[in-house]
Amino acid sequence: xxxxxxxxxxxxxxxxxxxxxxxxxxxxxxxxxxxxxxxxxxxxxxxxxxxxxxxxxxxxxxxxxxxxxxxxxxxxxxxxxxxxxxxxxxxxxxxxxxxxxxxxxxxxxxxxxxxxxxxxxxxxxxxxxx
Length: 130
Fold this sequence. Notes:
Elements: H1 2-5, H2 9-22, H3 29-53, H4 57-67, E1 74-75, H5 76-83, H6 89-99, E2 103-107, E3 110-113, H7 118-124, H8 126-129
Helix pairs in contact: 2-3, 4-7
């Protein structure tokens, strides 16, 4: 459960509630896999959509770029090039996403999504993010 929630307290609450309601006698990979669609649906609708609705268009652009990259970690310079940013907009957007705990710096100069399944959410809900 800890891996599926990525340390995000609200995600753990959602998944724990689903496990409780399912009366699963044993919590294992099979039972979690069965709950995964309902868990992701509730996480996406109840947590991620409201979070994204509060973001600026620049923040959303960064999310879209990151969601469509193959690597889990993305170079900050690459993001700036993709935004075609010659100002300070990219660092401001990144800082805003970090403050909102959507992304983090897993290593210097690299950015990654911090929330569990957020990449999948961003791709699935691209029309709501743009």
